[in-house]
Write a structure and sequence with these properties.
With about 450 residues, this protein is mainly alpha-helical. The chain contains 18 helices and no strands. Helix 7 packs across helix 9. The two termini are about 30 Å apart. The relative contact order is 0.13. It is found in: Cell membrane. It comes from Algoriphagus chordae. Its main location: membrane.
Length: about 450
């Protein structure tokens, strides 16, 4: 059985962190888009924050339909990297770029023309409806750019080149920091577009990052070279990618859909509670970034171990990732518990009720962040073995059979009111972590990986 070169070159923990920290930083920077928007829009008032908050889950839902396929790119590329098959790395990358490009165009058109009915569906009130629709329409035009950068980022992660995407994201976030107030409030001859200005600034920076990423891939000097000659669809290979990517897409879109229906529950309590939920959700999205970064690093390393035939090495990666995620994110959660009110006041400084409700949301969620991390890294391990169905089933169970029913019952049938929605988050995190960990310890994923590894790596270009 072939051993993995990565583990021979240094300790596992150093290797894992060397891949994880740039991914974490890149994800933090990408999350900063929403945080920067929230910061500046908070200066317009709670309604501006609520308009973006109510549209964000739908945006995330649309993005998630294509995001799973970019994860498939990471998994496939990492396994061919472990098998030292450069020809299939380049071919797989070319096919992935082509597929994601056409999907992004379809979703951009769909998003633009469905903006109004979607905002009405989630219950946007008359005071925020127009702004939420405009924000969603403008953001839809950025789907193509966003997906093209996501696919570049995923392919680079598959071969372990994680620093380059991070530097590109850093540059675009810094640019967005300056463009946001210009387009929101206006500057010189540039008029202020209000809520829509935040979306305009994001689309501009997303376009620049996509352009840079595609230039790097076509030049082929960073470990992957895509070619137009490899972009003729090969349906046998595309079928394999969809078999891997569709469960990952459904897993992410089910998470986004759960966020959407949670917003529908929140909207029944008024715009101030929506704003508090939006701030708490953004803090959650920032906190979950280390877990997602560690999960993607786990996917990359596990994929390379599987490609090299080292199943024991894949299990070592999983064991270490679980420990780091649980203890690390539990510590982060305790810090956020202490500073919850200060964080909420940073975004909406002039609304005491929003500050109080948002801080309470953060304090209720925070102690369970370590459990959330455990679920995420184990999903990353299952994805790295091409067992994306496991991640899908765990997520659907925790979100749709635990979180949403609990949120509905506790908010509509008890005296907790909207705080019942807050409590559904830690309870579902606990259940999901237990289910994922127990399943991981059964070892079925190892048997399945050994059974199918030869079939996966036997794909050929025509």
């Amino acid at each position: 059985m072939q051993k993995d070169n990565t583990l021979q070159q240094g300790s596992l923990i150093n290797t894992l962190f060397s891949i994880a920290w740039p991914i974490i930083m890149a994800n933090i920077l990408q999350t900063a888009y929403q945080l920067i928007d929230t910061f500046w829009l908070g200066r317009l008032g709670a309604n501006a924050v609520a308009a973006v908050s109510i549209s964000f889950p739908i945006l995330f839902l649309v993005l998630s339909l294509g995001a799973g396929l970019t994860l498939a790119g990471t998994v496939i590329i990492s396994q061919y990297k472990g098998a030292n098959n450069q020809k299939m790395i380049d071919f797989s990358a070319s096919q992935t770029v082509l597929i994601i490009f056409f999907i992004s165009i379809f979703l951009a058109i769909l998003g633009y023309f469905s903006a109004s009915p979607l905002m009405n569906l989630v219950g946007a009130g008359p005071e925020i409806l127009a702004d939420s629709v405009t924000y969603f329409k403008v953001s839809s035009w950025g789907f193509v750019f966003l997906f093209m950068f996501f696919v570049f980022q995923s392919l680079m992660r598959g071969i372990g080149n994680v620093l380059l995407p991070m530097y590109i994201v850093l540059g675009t976030v810094l640019l967005n920091l300056f463009l946001d107030p210009i387009f929101i409030f206006g500057f010189g001859s540039i008029p202020g577009y209000g809520v829509a200005g935040a979306a305009i600034a994001s689309v501009i920076t997303q376009g620049l990052s996509a352009l840079v990423g595609m230039i790097i891939l076509f030049r082929g000097k960073r470990g992957i070279r895509i070619r137009l000659a490899h972009m003729k669809p090969q349906f046998k290979w595309v079928k394999r990618m969809f078999q891997l990517g569709i469960p990952a897409s459904l897993e992410q879109s089910s998470r986004a859909a759960a966020m959407t229906v949670m917003v529908m529950l929140v909207t029944s309590f008024g715009s101030e509670v929506v704003a508090a939920y939006g701030i708490g959700a953004r803090i959650l999205s920032l906190v979950i970034v280390p877990a997602l970064g560690l999960a993607i690093a786990t996917t990359t390393l596990v994929g390379q171990q599987v490609g090299a035939g080292n199943i024991k090495g894949a299990e070592k990666v999983g064991d270490l990732s679980v420990k780091i995620a649980f203890f690390g994110l539990t510590g982060v959660g305790l810090m956020l518990f202490v500073f919850a009110e200060h964080l909420t006041a940073f975004f909406v400084p002039n609304d005491p009720q929003v500050i109080k409700d948002g801080a309470q949301f953060i304090r209720i969620m925070a102690p369970s962040f370590g459990l959330l991390g455990v679920q995420q890294v184990l999903n990353g391990l299952f994805n790295g073995t091409r067992f994306t169905q496991a991640s899908l089933l765990i997520s659907v169970f925790s979100l749709w059979m635990v979180r949403f029913p609990l949120a509905f019952v506790m908010s509509q049938r008890t005296d907790l009111a909207f705080e019942g929605i807050w409590w559904a988050f830690p309870l579902s995190n606990l259940v999901a972590a237990l289910v994922a960990f127990i399943y991981y310890k059964t070892g079925y994923w190892k048997i399945r990986t050994l059974r199918h590894r030869g079939d996966w790596l036997g794909a050929k270009t025509s």
